[in-house]
TrEMBL record:
Protein name: Integral membrane protein
Residue ranges of the TM segments: 15-34, 54-73, 80-101, 121-141, 153-171, 177-196
Native source organism of the sequence: Streptomyces tropicalis
Keyword list, A-Z: Membrane, Transmembrane, Transmembrane helix
Length: 254
C-alpha cells in the first residue's frame, strides 16, 4: 500500500488533490448528517443565526474556498502548506456545493425536489476528481503514445475532437455524459451519437421537421426516465435525505 501511494500519488504530486477530495467528501457527509439531525430535531445541533438572519453553511464555505485556493496558489503544490490549504479548499468546496441548489435558484430549496441538484453536483464533482486522481487526463490526452504526445497537432486534434463530442452531448440534453466525457471521451462519444432528449437545443434545431425522429426521441427518453429516475432518486435520498413533500411544505408555511 505504501509503495502504491508513493508511486501513484506522492511522486506524481497528486497528494494535495487526494487530500482535497477526501476533505470534500468527508465535509459533505458530515454536513448532510448534521442537517438531517437538525431537520429531525435530534442532537445538540441547530441552525446558525446572527441578528435573526439564518447563516447558511455556503457562507463559511465560500470563505474557506477562497482561503484554500489562494493559499494553495501562494505556497505551490508541495510541502505541508500546500497539503493544509488543499484540505481547507476541500472543506470549503464541500460546504459550498452542498448548497449548490440554493445558489442556483437563489432560494432556500435545500429540502425540496430542486435541492436534489446539490447531491447530483457533489456526486458528479467527486467522480470527476476521482477520475483525474486515477490518471484520466481531461479530453483523453492520457491515451496518447509518447510519440503522439510529442506531436502537437495530434494533441490539438484529440482535444478539439473530444471537446466537440462533449459539446454535442451537452446540446443533446445529456449534461452528465458531457461533463464526464471531458475526462473519459468514450462517454461523450456515446452521448454525441445517441438521440437527443426532447426539448434539447439539438432536438429543437434538427428534429423540428423530422416527426419520426421526435417520436423516437420522446419514446427513448420516456423509457430511460422510467428505468432510471426511481433508482436515482432512491440513491439521492439515501445520500442527501428525502425532500419534503408539497403538503409538508405548505403546512410549514401556514
Amino acid at each position: 500500500m505504501g509503495h502504491w501511494l508513493e508511486r501513484n500519488i506522492i511522486e506524481p504530486g497528486k497528494l494535495p488533490l487526494l487530500l482535497a477530495l477526501a476533505a470534500f467528501v468527508v465535509t459533505f457527509v458530515v454536513t448532510r448528517s448534521v442537517t438531517r439531525l437538525i431537520r429531525a430535531g435530534r442532537g445538540p445541533f441547530g441552525n446558525v443565526s446572527a441578528g435573526g438572519l439564518h447563516i447558511h453553511h455556503v457562507v463559511p464555505g465560500v470563505v474557506l474556498t477562497v482561503i484554500g485556493g489562494f493559499g494553495a496558489v501562494a505556497t505551490g503544490r508541495g510541502g505541508f502548506g500546500g497539503a493544509a490549504f488543499a484540505i481547507v479548499f476541500g472543506v470549503g468546496a464541500g460546504l459550498v456545493l452542498d448548497e449548490f441548489a440554493l445558489i442556483l435558484h437563489l432560494d432556500d430549496v435545500y429540502w425540496t425536489e430542486a435541492g436534489r441538484q446539490s447531491v447530483e453536483v457533489v456526486v458528479l464533482t467527486a467522480a470527476l476528481v476521482g477520475l483525474v486522481l486515477a490518471g484520466f487526463a481531461p479530453f483523453g490526452v492520457n491515451g496518447l503514445t509518447h510519440d503522439e504526445f510529442q506531436n502537437r497537432g495530434t494533441v490539438v486534434l484529440t482535444v478539439a475532437g473530444n471537446f466537440l463530442f462533449s459539446l454535442i452531448a451537452l446540446g443533446k440534453g445529456k449534461a452528465r455524459l458531457a461533463v464526464l466525457g471531458i475526462v473519459v471521451p468514450v462517454i461523450a462519444l456515446v452521448g454525441a451519437l445517441r438521440l437527443a432528449r426532447p426539448g434539447s437545443p439539438w432536438a429543437r434545431r434538427f428534429y423540428r421537421r423530422r416527426p419520426r425522429a421526435r417520436a423516437r426521441s420522446s419514446l427513448r427518453a420516456y423509457h430511460h426516465d422510467r428505468r432510471w429516475t426511481g433508482p436515482r432518486r432512491v440513491l439521492q435520498d439515501w445520500i442527501g435525505g428525502k425532500p419534503d413533500s408539497e403538503i409538508t411544505r405548505a403546512r410549514g408555511h401556514s
